[in-house]
Specification:
It is built from three helices and no strands. It is flat.
Length: about 100
């Protein structure tokens, strides 16, 4: 009696796990859209795209030019950053012993 109950205790969780896995696998696939839905969606898309495009074209855009001061500041930061990598690489070559 004890042996059959231990086998049953082992089989029941496995069966529940298999059922849960199969039901989850069936929910992964989404059915294809129906023909009526596709026709209804095709008519609504271009009108909203035209309205959005016209609205964005009517709004003036801000200028995105960089001043000479900003370019010089970026150049200084870039030079220091590049120099740090050069020194680190040169130090690495000297410590490895292969030039």
């Amino acid at each position: 009696m004890a042996r059959s109950s231990s086998v049953l205790l082992a089989i029941v969780p496995l069966a529940l796990l298999a059922v849960a896995f199969c039901s989850a696998a069936l929910e992964v696939f989404v059915p294809a859209p129906l023909a009526q839905e596709v026709v209804a969606l095709r008519g609504a898309g271009p009108a909203s795209a035209v309205a959005t495009g016209a609205l964005l074209a009517a709004i003036p855009q801000p200028a995105a030019a960089f001043s000479e001061t900003e370019l010089n500041q970026f150049g200084l930061v870039f030079a220091i950053f590049f120099l740090g990598f050069f020194i680190a690489g040169f130090f690495r070559m000297l410590t490895v012993g292969k030039l």
